[in-house]
TrEMBL record:
<dbReference type="InterPro" id="IPR008506">
    <property type="entry name" value="SND2/TMEM208"/>
</dbReference>
<keyword id="KW-0812">Transmembrane</keyword>
<keyword id="KW-0472">Membrane</keyword>
<keyword id="KW-1133">Transmembrane helix</keyword>
<keyword id="KW-0732">Signal</keyword>
<comment type="similarity">
    <text>Belongs to the TMEM208 family.</text>
</comment>
<dbReference type="GO" id="GO:0005789">
    <property type="term" value="C:endoplasmic reticulum membrane"/>
</dbReference>
<dbReference type="Pfam" id="PF05620">
    <property type="entry name" value="TMEM208_SND2"/>
</dbReference>
<feature type="region of interest" description="Disordered">
    <location>
        <begin position="103"/>
        <end position="139"/>
    </location>
</feature>
<dbReference type="GO" id="GO:0005773">
    <property type="term" value="C:vacuole"/>
</dbReference>
<keyword id="KW-0256">Endoplasmic reticulum</keyword>
<protein>
    <recommendedName>
        <fullName>Transmembrane protein 208</fullName>
    </recommendedName>
</protein>
<feature type="signal peptide">
    <location>
        <begin position="1"/>
        <end position="23"/>
    </location>
</feature>
<dbReference type="GO" id="GO:0006624">
    <property type="term" value="P:vacuolar protein processing"/>
</dbReference>
<feature type="compositionally biased region" description="Basic residues">
    <location>
        <begin position="129"/>
        <end position="139"/>
    </location>
</feature>
Amino acid sequence: MGIMHSSFTWKHWIGLMLTSAAYFLPYKQLASMAKPVYSDNGELLDGGFDLSTGGICEYLYDVIYITVFVQLMSIISEKFWWTYLVIPAFAGYKISGLLRGTFFSGGSEGEVEDDKTRKKREKMEKKASRGKMIKTRTR
């Protein structure tokens, strides 16, 4: 083996297993999402999920990219392993925004709109639908 045995500790083995799982799990999820579904006679029922769209695919790609970054930078310093905290921190951020919007919203859906506000909103909608006019000078 080309690695000095004394410099390769149990922490490195755990890191190798962690990063291998961080590659394997998102890759398998992406592969299963993109897999087409065929009927018994061979007709295509579902072409699979478009992986270029945002959403969960974007997050899975981010996990893979962060894993590559951590693996390469951990060659320089072991402190780059702290970069993995970005993943749960971002998940917590997204979940807190979801919970805040769900449970702590202002309740604007049930409010009755007064006549003045309704007229102002309708005027703004009418103005937006007209489009912007460009004034030009003729000579």
